[in-house]
Design brief:
The chain has 268 residues and is an alpha/beta fold. It is built from ten helices and eight strands. Strands 1, 2, 3, 4, 5, 6, 7 and 8 form an eight-stranded mixed sheet that branches. Helix 6 crosses helix 10 (236-250). The protein is globular, with a radius of gyration of 18 Å. The chain starts with 13 loop residues before the first helix and ends with a strand. The mean pLDDT is 95.
Length: 268
């Protein structure tokens, strides 16, 4: 989701979608799963390509999941995934998280994964998510914290990649270190019953390194981030160097990467 003058840094190049389609409810929303029950209604804000959405639909069936995205084009990715899996309990809505098109107290659960880091006003977004959640319901969010990412071996190209991403994301109106800020944003949005946790993705096997490193090696050259980097003063040679840095890391026998995420369960 974008909105409030923020620009989505990643875009929808196939290299980006490849990483987003890897996400499941189990590897990306485990903090929420214990609270789900059959028959619940759930809103998935910023549903992306719909892999998490479709998983959540299985957990609340025969309840209904509403998948929301900022544009019909973006929503089409989730439609395709849900149709591929043959789910009948998913509805679709074009909506901005800052101004959700639903009445008060509509859903039992409102979920957003990797959304608040990209929006212009995360506190307003959380207020809207709270508004459309029924009393006694749950608002669940999870976001990365880029500065807390860590890897081995130390590689200057990956340091440069991180500095570039932080600069571009903030220039686009987002906050790439959202994970550490989620609790403060929830308090500012008026939540008083909040459980804050964290979890990681770790890439350390040869197969995982090849997948993650290869994905970013392509992404830094071909995604919207590449276009934004060139417009901000990076050269094609700079981006090729970063791409090769990711491939070099992926080829390291001792290569290890851990990505930190903040998580919240907010009771309404």
């Amino acid at each position: 989701m974008t909105g409030k003058d923020a620009v989505y840094t990643h875009g929808h190049h196939e290299s980006v979608l490849r990483s987003h389609r890897w996400r499941t409810a189990e590897n990306s929303a485990a903090h929420l799963l214990p609270y789900l029950r059959a028959g619940m209604t759930l809103l998935d804000v910023g549903c992306g390509p719909g892999t998490i959405t479709a998983d959540l639909a299985e957990h609340v069936a025969p309840g209904t999941v509403t998948a929301a995205e900022i544009s019909e084009e973006a929503l089409g990715l989730a439609r395709a995934e849900v149709e591929r899996r043959g789910h009948s309990g998913v509805e679709f809505s074009v909506a901005d998280v800052h101004e959700l098109r639903f009445p008060d107290d509509t859903f039992d659960v409102v979920h957003a994964h990797q959304v608040l880091q990209h929006v212009g006003d995360p506190v307003l977004a959380l207020r809207e998510m709270r508004r459309v959640c029924r009393p006694g319901g749950i608002v669940a969010v999870r976001d990365s914290d880029y500065t807390a990412f860590t890897w081995f071996p130390e590689m200057p190209e990956l340091d440069e990649w991180l500095d570039l991403y932080l600069r571009l994301a903030r220039a686009n109106g987002g906050e790439p270190d959202a994970g550490r800020r989620l609790l403060s944003w929830a308090h500012a949005a008026g939540f008083t019953d909040v459980s804050a946790t964290s979890s990681t993705w770790c890439f350390a096997t040869p197969e995982d390194r090849a997948w993650w490193g290869g994905m970013w090696a392509e992404r830094i050259l071909k995604s919207d981030m590449a276009r934004q980097a060139l417009a901000s003063g990076s050269t094609e040679e700079d981006l090729r160097r970063l791409s090769e840095g990711w491939r070099a890391w992926a080829g390291e026998r001792d290569g290890w990467l851990s990505l930190l995420h903040g998580e919240l369960i907010c009771r309404v």
